[in-house]
Write a structure and sequence with these properties.
With 716 residues, the protein is mainly alpha-helical. The protein is built from 28 helices and four strands. The longest helix is centred in the C-terminal third of the chain and has 30 residues.
Length: 716
């Protein structure tokens, strides 16, 4: 561009022979527009391959927010490239002239855009592309369409409210901004909306109206289920699952009828609508390519919503609630169902934990009467802090993996404060704990040696630390060079947690009068003060928490054995030089060790480990030049994987899916070691041709699976 930019109050721009007049700019100097295509083409040709022109303010955030122009899955503007005349004709067509197929297409398109929104797209670029969402009164000429659109907006309002109340507003996978668009349905209750949907179904009496009635039924089931889930207590959860089951049946029949062409040509939709409302937010990729993928998301969404509604059923013990959250989180459900679960926990956990009360899950977990603890200032402070830490941590388990990983450091700091408070309470109430234990038929010295408050706080810290390290594997944050140290530290943390859970189980059974035969002891035995025998699975027979306690121990044993086996396996492979491990690009192994585990030193218990201990453990297991020692590490690793499989086989049917994925990890690594040992015993040529690579385990990416291959083949 030559000369001043503007040479008049109303500059003009000529493109393809047409001249358009623009509004006056702030500059008072005259300016003129000139063509610059030739200069731009010359400048582009002068750019070398891989070069980029950018301003001084260009940074990493700008690079991560960049989109590939005109790529429909990345560039939101590409979705607006339409035949505007045909689009305007579809939008402005009078509703009374619509056929039933066109109304059904609007309903299906609304469901598709809802799926795009709940999977991470913006509300303005998805649901509110529909004219009847932005201008509800424009659908008054069709009572069925107006009833459907109002009910759909009410459903979206329930979803939006659940995400806000569940504390998921900061998540990367859901945008909560409404851009001032009318999401709430004013002056309409759920019951009135359901009555309108039912009336629309009764009025659809023609045979060709059957598809429309099916869509109205689905929306009615879904709306009623969301209304029941939004209630603060658990009264309506079972009924909500009933309606969700009906909605899933209706959804599967609808997905077979939907035609892609009908969706693309649905009347009332304008892709250029709300184009300027999303300017503050970078355009997001459309999560789904076609209607089939959207309806697949709906089926997954309703299934996850059913599972999230069971959060009230897992509140009989803190251990049950933690196990349920871990199991659900590993399935990576959509954010909205977990938002409903998080909102329910925020309302119910303070009462269930016994926060500010003397009866609750904290008293059950600590095995100490809280009315005695609350008599002192330190006891009340510990109780309040424990309730806050547990509520925040358990609710955060409903968010995505990246958010959980980021918040882990904060919860470690909170639980380290709680550990100090627990030590102060035990010091202050030592004699009371002994006296209470004796009155309950427990050995006072044994009860004191178990240190109920500090042991409980240390076990909670170990759970957070284990979760944080596993989340790093799930997020693929680690280099292959770090696997050995990570599995070594995880083996230590799982061993600490296993000992704490076993001690807790023994103390719990003593408190409830159980003996080694698995039956409740008599009152005479309690008065004599007989203590329980060492922990065995038979202790839990006949007790409500029998399965939870026994299977918790079995699962921790399996995880511990797998981590120990992977550590021994890494040491063995490094010793025989069969695994290619790239060097760390920016820092040494010691520095990376301190970076990964430095935040664990915030807590006094479990006792933090240091880098020299890691080196000493590796040196004690095997030496690179000693084949006998290396073979011994291989044999120990195989025994660990076999033991893990035996533990997993004893898990109940309710944990069959989790057990099968863990069993696959142990079996795959066991097979790899056996193949290597067989090749080593056969011939030098076959042994030299093999190498090992690690990759994420299918079904459970907390672990890594080794694959054997020849140096010129793909992994097997």
């Amino acid at each position: 561009i030559e000369g001043p930019l503007y040479e008049g109050g109303n500059p003009t721009c000529e493109v393809d022979g047409t001249v358009s007049t623009t509004s006056a700019m702030t500059s008072s100097k005259p300016s003129a527009w000139k063509r610059c295509e030739a200069q731009l083409e010359e400048a582009c040709e002068a750019l070398p391959a891989g070069g980029m022109v950018h301003g001084k303010t260009f940074d990493l955030f700008a690079a991560m927010s960049a989109v590939e122009i005109m790529e429909p899955l990345m560039d939101a503007g590409a979705r607006r490239i339409q035949d505007t005349a045909a689009e305007r004709k579809r939008v402005e067509k009078p509703v009374q002239e619509w056929r039933t197929e066109e109304i059904c297409a609007v309903c299906d398109r609304w469901m598709v855009e809802e799926a795009q929104w709940m999977a991470g797209h913006t509300l303005a670029q998805s649901v509110f592309l529909c004219k009847f969402a932005c201008q509800p009164n424009s659908a008054d000429e069709s009572p069925a369409l107006r009833a459907y659109c109002d009910a759909a907006r009410a459903c979206d309002a329930f979803v939006h409210r659940a995400v806000m109340e569940g504390g998921m507003a900061g998540d990367e996978d859901f945008i909560v901004e409404t851009f001032g668009l009318p999401l709430e349905v004013k002056e309409q209750t759920t019951q009135s909306l359901l009555a309108r949907l039912e009336g629309a179904q009764k009025n659809a009496t023609r045979p060709e109206d059957a598809p429309l009635k099916a869509r109205l039924r689905f929306r009615a089931y879904f709306l009623e289920a969301l209304d029941l889930l939004a209630q603060p207590k658990s009264a309506g959860c079972e009924e909500a699952r009933h309606f969700l089951g009906k909605a899933k049946q209706q959804l599967r029949s609808l997905s077979e009828e939907v035609m892609e062409d009908n969706l693309n040509n649905a009347p009332g939709y304008a892709m250029h609508a709300n184009a300027k409302l999303t300017a503050p937010i970078p355009p997001r990729a459309a999560p789904f390519k076609d209607a089939k993928a959207c309806f697949g998301f709906w089926d997954e969404f309703l299934t996850a919503l059913e599972e999230a509604s069971r959060v009230h059923e897992h509140g009989s013990s803190l251990l049950q609630l933690q196990r349920w959250l871990q199991r659900v989180a590993r399935t990576t459900p959509p954010v909205v169902p977990m938002a409903f679960a998080a909102g329910a926990m925020r309302l119910d956990l303070p009462d269930k934990l016994g926060w500010n009360t003397t009866k609750g899950l904290l008293e059950i977990d600590l095995l100490v009467p809280m009315d005695k603890v609350l008599e002192t200032e330190k006891g009340r402070e510990f109780f309040d802090e424990a309730g806050k830490c547990l509520t925040d941590h358990l609710v955060s388990c409903c968010s995505n993996r990246a958010r959980q990983h980021r918040l882990s450091r904060r919860y470690l700091e909170d639980f380290s404060v709680l550990l100090n408070l627990a030590l102060a309470v035990e010091t202050e109430r030592k004699e009371d704990i002994k006296a209470w234990s004796k009155a309950c038929g427990m050995d006072p010295e044994l009860a004191w040696a178990q240190r109920p408050f500090t042991s409980w706080a240390a076990s909670q810290i170990a759970r957070v630390q284990i979760m944080m390290l596993f989340k790093g594997f799930e997020l693929d944050l680690y280099s292959t060079k770090e696997y050995c140290m990570l599995f070594w530290y995880l083996e230590y943390l799982l061993r600490c947690l296993l000992n704490a859970v076993k001690a807790w189980g023994e103390a719990y059974l003593q408190n409830n009068g159980f003996n080694s035969s698995g039956k409740v002891g008599t009152k005479a035995n309690k008065k004599k003060g007989k203590s329980g025998t060492p922990w065995t699975s038979s202790h839990f027979d006949g007790h409500p928490l029998r399965e939870t306690l026994a299977y918790e121990v079995l699962e921790i044993q399996a995880l511990h054995a797998i981590c120990q086996g992977l550590f021994q396996m890494m040491v063995y492979l490094e010793a025989v030089e069969k695994v290619i491990i790239p060097e760390l690009p920016y820092n040494s192994e010691r520095e990376r060790f301190e970076q990964r585990f430095g935040c664990l030193h915030l807590c006094q218990s479990p006792v933090p480990l240091v880098y020299p201990q890691y080196l000493d453990t590796k040196a004690a297991i095997g030496k690179a030049s000693d084949p006998a020692t290396a073979s011994n590490a291989c044999m120990v690793a195989q025994q660990c994987f076999q033991y893990a499989r035996s533990c997993l086989q004893r898990l109940p049917d309710s944990s069959a899916k989790e057990a099968s994925t863990l069993d696959r990890v142990a079996a795959s690594n066991l097979l790899t070691l056996r193949v290597l040992e067989r090749a080593r015993s056969q011939s030098t040529e076959s042994w030299d041709s093999l190498c090992v690579s690690f990759h994420s385990s299918p079904g459970d990416n907390r672990f890594r699976t080794a694959s054997v291959r020849t140096r010129q083949q793909t992994p097997q």
